[in-house]
Design a protein that fits this description.
OB fold (Dihydrolipoamide Acetyltransferase, E2P); 6 strands; Tissue inhibitor of metalloproteinase; signal; transmembrane; 5-stranded mixed β-barrel
Length: 224
């Protein structure tokens, strides 16, 4: 009897320990595509090119992650070649785990998010409930029926809600700095005026030497 009572108590204790973790799991209310677009400040397709963690938490909670996207089509918000979007690192805290090198349809909001454990220092944030979607590689605007990596097709309702896409501005190209070509000796090129100066100086010395030698010749031929 005592053994049975002990087992019951252990089961109750285990349920109490597991319950808080279950309560912290992310739960998303289903949203229609039009609602997803309306609730976002920026909607775009882009490829993840970088990811970095922001700050930390003394309680051990994983800090938020800031993902950098190279945009290829913009459906809503300011046109930009790149976007930085923050999200929680843990999916249990409604964080979305983007994969570097993959292309996504991203729904990002502005303002402070009560989900983030630290200030990410960027204007945009997103979550598991925002409607983000892994899409096929490329840079063309999304079309109804496009194949997705999940094996499904892109819904016409979502494409209609997104509306017309615009391409982002081009990234600024690095400024090229012209450098003088080295001469055969490995040094820099010599300005042409130096050659002219050397030539004039040489001619002047030659003329002076010729006149001096001529005068000496005349003085030797004069009678005593």
């Amino acid at each position: 009897m005592r053994h049975r009572l002990l087992v019951v108590l252990l089961l109750l204790a285990g349920a109490l320990v597991i319950a808080p973790g279950t309560a912290c799991a992310c739960s998303c209310a289903p949203l229609e595509p039009a609602e997803q677009v309306k609730g976002a400040a920026a909607v775009f397709t882009g490829t993840v090119v970088a990811a970095r963690r922001v700050g930390g938490d003394p309680l051990g909670t994983p800090p938020p992650v800031v993902y950098t996207f190279r945009a290829d089509q913009i459906y809503k918000g300011k046109a930009s070649a790149e976007f930085e979007v923050a999200t929680n690192a843990d999916s249990a805290a409604c964080g979305y785990n983007f994969v570097t090198g993959s292309r996504y349809l991203v729904f990002a909001a502005t303002g402070q998010s009560g989900l983030l454990t630290a200030d990410p220092g960027v204007a945009l944030n997103t979550s598991l409930c925002a409607g983000n979607l892994l899409v096929s590689p490329g840079d063309a605007a999304l079309r109804a029926g496009d194949g997705l990596p999940s094996g499904e097709s892109l819904a016409a309702e979502l494409v209609t809600a997104l509306g017309t896409a615009t391409p982002p501005p081009a990234l600024p190209s690095p400024t090229a700095v012209a450098t003088p070509a080295p001469d055969a000796s490995g040094g820099g090129s010599i300005p042409i005026w130096i050659y002219a100066g050397v030539a004039v100086t040489g001619a002047g010395l030659t003329f002076t030497g010729w006149r001096f030698s001529r005068r000496r010749g005349r003085s030797r031929r004069l009678p005593d």
